[in-house]
Each structure stands twice: as structure tokens, then as C-alpha cells.
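Entry 14. Structure prediction run on the chain below.
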Amino acid sequence: MKNILEIGWVAVLFLLGALNAACAEEFSAKVIAVVDGDTVLILRDNMPIKVRLAEIDAPEKTQAFGEESKQSLAELVLNKQVHVDSRAIDDYGRLVALITIDGLNISYEQVQRGMAWMYSRFNKSEVLLGLQNGAKKAKRGLWMQTDPIPPNKWRKDNAVPQKHDVAQNDSCGSKRYCSQMSSCNEANFYLSQCNVKTLDRDNDGVPCENLCSTKK
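Output returned:
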């Protein structure tokens, strides 16, 4: 029994080591889609990987300045080769990473443009704080608003209903398919707020590609 337990612990430690190594990896990849202001889809070795930008939190797609933040990120990285400095895997299975292009830190650029907040839970960067204060003082992007709501508070106040609650939520209605959507904004609402997974069959975070395609 002792030997079995020892082998088990060795296997666990090996797995943890492998995960840590993967999370600390750096590589280049092409951005093939922008999901929102802090999340992209990259292509590496012909495999799509969803990446959450480290150190920032952007407005949700249905939140004020959510679409502007997404467009800003698309302008910076869409269809471009980027350097990925991976840091962790989040609770949703996304790779958390810093992304740069020719030395430009994309997380920092989004904050400087007023298109994202610094994510301060684990981040104590004085540089990032300075960029955020500068955007706030200049009233750039989301700081044009009198009282902008941080995404974490917005998500809490607008929690996505559970599947069994969807039918009872009048604001969600009964639409379930892309053919019923009149716009990309409506499709995003049904996916993010009503949890209608039939709108995102490839699970890339982008609903109804015919309406919400990021391709030029």
C-alpha cells in the first residue's frame, strides 16, 4: 500500500510540474478572433486556443464600452502574429497570458486607451496603475462615463441565469437559434446573459459567426 501511495504522489507531482511548465511557456501565434476586450482566440499548431489577457479586465460585451473595447483589441491584434507569455490557466480553462507585438504590451495598451481596467486582485504594477490614472484623468474610453462600473461588479449585478431559469426569464425570451437573431448584439446578449449555447456551437465565445464574424 505504501508503494502504491508513493507512486500516486509521484504521478501527481509530475502532472503539476507539467502544468506549471505549460503555464510558463512563451511562444508565437496568430490571433484569429477577438472575443471581447480582454479575450482572444489564437491558432497554434493548427489548434485554436482561447487566451485571456493577463492583468486587465475589460467591459463585458453587453456592458457600456464593451463593443468599443472589443474593437480596440481587434485593431491591435486581429490577424496578427503575437508573442504569448503564458502565466496560468483560469477557472474557465482559458490560458492567461501577456500578449505583445513588437514589444508593445497589449494589456497595457488597452488600459492606456481607456478600454480596460487593471485587474488588481494579483497585480500591483505601478506602471499599469499609472496608465489607468492617466486614462481616467484624460477621460479616455470608458472613463468618459460619470461613474463607470467595474466589470467584476457588473457581472455580479448581471449574473447569467442558470439553464433551468432561462425559460422563466422574460428578458431572455424564447429565441435559441442564429436564424432568430436580428443582430450581433442580440446574439451576444442571448449567449452571455441567457446561456443559449446553441448560438456558439464551436465554443469559441463568438456567437453566430454569420452575424459576428471578425473577418474583414
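The first helix runs from residue 2 to 23.
Filed with the rest of this week's runs.
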